[in-house]
Automatic annotation (TrEMBL):
Protein's UniProt name: AraC family transcriptional regulator
Provenance organism: Thalassospira lucentensis
Amino acid sequence: MSSFREVPRPIIALGTDYPDGHVIAAHRHDRDQLLYGLTGVLMASTPQGAWMMPPQRGM
């Protein structure tokens, strides 16, 4: 399969490493997401609010 969007399962896992200070432009997802940061701090913002997530926590 060429894309995780085509995986016929209700739950999948993806791993990605980002460098310090990496910013991802505003976007949407077709599926719900659980974010988990093993190391570093994750900051997420939406029109409803902004959140800062410490390492080893999920959002």
